[in-house]
Amino acid sequence: MSAHSSSGSGVEKDGLFQEFYTEVKQIEKRDSVLTPKQQIERLLRPGSTYFNLNPFEVLQVEPDTPLDAIRTKYKRLSILVHPDKNQDDKDRAQTAFEAVSKAWKTLENDDTRAKCLDVVEEAKAKIDANIVEKKKKLKKDGKKNKIEEDDPEKYKHALYVMTMKLFADMERKRRNQEDRDMEERKRKREEELDAEEKAKLEKEWQKNYEESREDRVSSWKKFQTGAGPSKGPEGPQGPVPKKPKKIKTFRPPKHKAESR
To answer: Where is there biased composition of kind Basic and acidic residues (predicted)?
Structure first.
């Protein structure tokens, strides 16, 4: 009786899950044919900078969707939000179109798509680990071993939130790395400019040194031949030596008697 009851309960759960799954797919199908205006609103809704980090979310496809199906969805969306098709809202349409194009470029590349799939798998692993920890704690506390993630809808929501968080973390790391790379490039450029300035000064000094070589050689030759300082004017007996200049010495002022 117990086994039969358990089996019935399992069938009932499977039925409920299938019902939920069908409903979700109907919602996705409805959303996939949103009007151009609705798609633009979806892609530019508050928090879109955060939501649009997930290319699967942008293109409204499941992570395990084949690439050909993703390409088809991309083409449909790009036509819907293309600026030429939305002349009354061209600027916002352009922004939405760029988001769709970026998502497709991310997923059409094998490497970047693999990274995105890794994010989804990591999110699943984290959610499943959280579920195990929650159930362990409930069991330890002697409480019912049931949590909200047992509900497929709640599980999907938790997975959605975790996936978004991980995509945001990945983007933050990318920006931090980009900032570090920019600082490194800036530092190297400053070093290059300093080296160029030093080389320029060295070259200028060398040029001035070479240009003054002739004067230095000429002075040295005169010194070697004994050429001294210039002599005075010629007199009857030869050159008249110049009178030595008187050296002024310090003379203290004369002492004056005080007048009474």
So the answer is: 172-218
